[in-house]
Specification:
single chain; alpha/beta; six-stranded mixed beta sheet; elongated; Rossmann fold
């Protein structure tokens, strides 16, 4: 798949000497949803701000659809829509006027039909004549997305877009994001709702202390790092695990009623069959068997913990 953003050796150091980003190398594919995860202060917003030209980079280069963000700023910025964390809008402007004005800022001709579609997709149409000061927090968050989409960008950055938004509105937003991706828009999002990333993203990036520590296709990440548990509900409780089963590194529950086998890769079928045969050989019966897999949240927490 063709890359739409190419980041090479990007670093950002503030005047105080604090280095917020350290030698970032990242390629973002056209038409994908990339979720960027990391703890507070990891550098997510700084990275987005550098790509969008809001912050000057200290070292390295960023290209957006073949255009350099420094020497061809206008070309790159016209390709990008940004939804920031902060709710910064003109409180006494109407919804319709502010979204239309945002479109005009990028030199786009008036297109009332398109603005109407965006507002309807975001459930803002019935608020089009309302002043922004009268909107709820969730409505203001959706308004920021409408403003970001007003000039029909090819790339959409969503920086914590569902913070403070109720469940129904989150659902509406993600339906819109999926439809944008399906229409060819590239979406990069940061979120603290890791279930959203697990549900939405094609790829996952993890940033910590200003460095990209992982970038991986979501399915491959889950396959490689998602631990799987096989839990056996025993017919009779055990006091201890028989030595004949030591090779399987089993764990026994505190009440002795469950044996738990942990494995980290696919292709364990032969080993599981061997385990079940070994249990039978030592006279251990079980009445139920369950399998579970680590969530993306488990993987993320372990990655950050290992990087500290």
């Amino acid at each position: 798949m063709q890359n739409i953003i190419t980041i090479a050796n990007l670093s950002k150091t503030y005047a105080s000497g604090y280095q917020a980003l350290k030698n970032i190398n990242l390629e973002i594919r056209r038409g994908e949803i990339l979720a960027l995860l990391g703890p507070n202060g990891a550098g997510k917003t700084t990275l987005i701000s550098c790509i969008c030209g809001i912050l000057n980079i200290s070292e390295g280069t960023v290209q957006v659809d073949g255009h350099d963000i420094v020497t061809e700023f206008r070309a790159t910025r016209s390709l990008i829509g940004l939804v920031p964390q902060e709710l910064t809008t003109d409180a006494f402007e109407t919804v319709w006027a502010t979204v239309s004005f945002s479109r005009g800022l990028f030199g786009k001709p008036a297109n009332p039909e398109y603005i109407e579609k965006v507002l309807k997709d975001l459930s803002l149409w019935d608020k089009k004549d309302n002043k922004i000061i009268a909107l709820s927090g969730g409505m203001k968050r959706r308004l920021l997305i409408a403003k970001a989409l007003s000039h029909e960008p090819q790339i959409l950055f969503l920086d914590e877009p569902t913070a403070g938004v109720d469940v129904n509105l989150r659902h509406d937003m993600w339906q819109l994001v999926r439809s944008l991706r399906d229409s060819g828009v590239t979406v990069i999002l940061t979120t603290h709702y890791i279930d959203e990333a697990e549900d939405m993203a094609d790829r996952i990036g993890v940033i910590n202390k200003g460095e990209i520590i992982l970038i991986e296709d979501k399915k491959e990440l889950m396959r490689k790092l998602g631990k799987k548990l096989l839990t056996l509900q025993l017919e009779q409780p055990l006091d201890r695990i028989p030595p004949e089963l030591a090779a399987y590194r089993l764990n026994l529950s505190s009440d002795g009623n469950q044996l738990i086998y942990t494995y980290e890769t696919e292709g364990e079928r032969v080993t599981i069959i061997s385990l079940l045969n070994a249990l039978s050989a030592v006279g251990i019966g079980f009445k139920d068997i369950q399998t579970t897999q680590s969530s993306l949240e488990n993987i993320f927490v372990n990655l950050i913990k290992d990087g500290q």
